[in-house]
Amino acid sequence: MKIQSFTKSYGGRRVLDLPGLELERGKIYGVIGANGSGKSTFAKVLAGITSADQPGPKTEKGLSLGYMPQKNYAFRMSVKKNIMLGSRDRARAESLMDALGIEQLADKGAKSLSGGETARMALARLMMKDFDLLILDEPTAAMDMESSLKAEGLMADYCRRTGCTLVLITHSLPQAERVADMLLFFHEGQLLEQGEKQRLLAAPACLELRRFLYFYGMGDGR
Fold first, then answer.
1. Second-level CATH architecture of 1-64+133-144+164-222
2. Which residues pair with 187 in a beta bridge?
3. How far apart are CA 179 and CA 174, in angstroms?
4. How far apart are CA 215 and CA 154, in angstroms?
5. What are phi and psi of 67, to 5 degrees?
6. Domain range list for the chain
7. Dist. CA 96–CA 197, nearest whole Å
8. What is the pLDDT of residues 126-164, one digit of tens each?
9. What are the residues facing 136 on neighbouring strands?
10. From CA 62, how far away is CA 75, in angstroms rounded?
11. Which of 49, 72, 185, 221 has its Cβ near the most Cβ atoms within 10 Å?
């Protein structure tokens, strides 16, 4: 899956400058970096939510694409009905609710959910369909640890079953380490390093990534 190079600017200030990028099918890409490094902008442009500067299209045509933003929406109906907006497959809806630990909320009004419950519902709703490219922007930010681990397991299962490319924007390096096959490291709007997770974590090439890892207790930051 090839992504053309692109830039994104706001008010004349360039916030993202991405070179050409190729993503493998069946892989989970953990997108890491400090706040303001360009991770969410990358997700929004890739998903077509935000338009980029020239030169135009970013992904191959004909790909089915799913996107989960940081802020999730609950429609004014039950949790189960919200989830089945993605598909009428009742068995799949029940399986997803069970995997995410929200089966007991099936008949509850979705508008009454907590932030973490809403996020789990939104993830289930999205995963009712099979996509070629699935982009998740901080999907577990509102979840507790137990719910996050369930969601992470579901991401891995979904990727294996569908063979999709999954792009996971995360503020948590431990999460990226648990889930991702590949890492993309952003710093000040630049994609500074990319590659297999084990290699990047064991032997980061750039100083910025070494310092980022040091913040999480990995390496000496030099």
1. 3-Layer(aba) Sandwich (3.40)
2. 190
3. 9
4. 28
5. -140, 130
6. 1-64+133-144+164-222
7. 28
8. 999 999 999 999 999 999 999 999 999 999 999 999 999
9. 68, 168
10. 29
11. 185
